[in-house]
Design goal:
303 residues; alpha+beta; 10-stranded mixed β-sheet; globular
């Protein structure tokens, strides 16, 4: 295997190739690696990365998927252009607008132009619960070999709806955050490239204050006086690659070109103790809601 990125200063280029580790205050040193599945077994991946909550980029894990090489922006526009999709118009947690998928895709050039000329945020189709309306698409990918998901032990209708599609033009941004329920996550690029910035959980205290995250592009140093103590780990995820983002790791991403990404948050064996209390409350809440509504909940109900 070879290294994908290194812990880098913020001014360094997006893609760093080679192995160079820097000390992370109080947590030693780390670099995100890129490993082909031919060099690591599922058991080794579980032991060395998932159990230890350390990020990794896998190569070759989606080569056999029907989705890979097929799911592009053009494919979704042609086959699902009439689908009503929720688009974030102002970045992460910004205003959300429902529009037809074809309308969104046809506006890409305008969005990029406005971003370059006016500094406007690029509207982003993110966390789309596409399986609500198109469950057949779930047959086009399978991650169980490397990402065993204990959520799958639940009846299908009660599993948390944590599988999402992300789509947009160059410049779409997922701002700094940690994932739902502190679950582990995988994310693969089916089209395009994205630059990721991740932080060790021990550095969260430097980049989050009163539930507000620092803006990595324009940090408020009065509100985040220890920002420079947080060491970012940067890497670029290429098309066909899959990133493992461990529980509790703050991360952000920006698309370097038009992209389609598929992601899911999953329950690993190593993380069951942390997640089970939240899962139990979710299942109780879900059952009550379904009783009141007299129907099964959809992922987009956002329980």
């Amino acid at each position: 295997h070879r290294a994908l990125g290194k812990i880098s200063a913020r001014a360094l280029p997006a893609l760093q190739v080679g192995v160079e580790k820097r000390e992370m205050a109080g947590v030693g040193s780390y670099t995100v690696e890129k490993r082909h599945v031919s060099s690591i077994t599922p058991e080794e991946f579980e032991r060395e990365y998932v159990s230890r909550a350390m990020p990794l980029v896998l190569q070759g894990s989606i080569d056999g998927w029907e989705a890979y090489g097929k799911w592009s922006v053009e494919y979704f526009r042609e086959n699902y252009g009439d689908a009503e999709v929720p688009v974030d118009m102002g970045g992460y947690c910004g205003q959300r607008k429902t529009m037809k998928l074809a309308e969104y895709v046809d506006s890409f050039d305008e969005y990029v132009r406005d971003a370059e000329e006016k500094g406007s945020p690029v509207p982003y189709l993110r966390v789309w619960n596409f399986l609500d309306d198109f469950p057949e698409l779930g047959e086009c990918f399978d991650t169980e070999e490397y990402f065993a998901d204990c959520f799958r032990k639940l009846p299908e209708r009660t599993r948390p709806p944590f599988t999402w599609l992300f789509m947009g033009p160059k410049g779409i941004v997922s701002k700094l955050h940690v994932d739902i329920w502190y679950t582990d996550a995988w994310l693969c690029n089916l089209q395009g490239r994205k630059k990721f910035t991740v932080f060790h959980p021990a550095h969260r205290k430097y980049i989050e204050v009163d539930s507000k995250w620092v803006d990595l592009d324009n940090p408020d140093r009065e509100q985040f006086p220890d920002f420079d103590k947080a060491i970012p780990v940067e890497f670029v995820l290429e098309a066909g690659e899959m990133a493992f983002i461990p529980r509790k790791w703050p991360h952000a991403a920006v698309a370097l070109e038009t992209s389609v990404s598929l992601s899911a948050n999953f329950l690993s064996k190593a993380n069951k103790r942390n997640v089970m209390p939240t899962l139990s409350k979710y299942l109780e809440r879900r059952a009550k809601c379904e009783m009141v509504l007299q129907r099964s909940l959809r992922g987009s109900d956002n329980l």
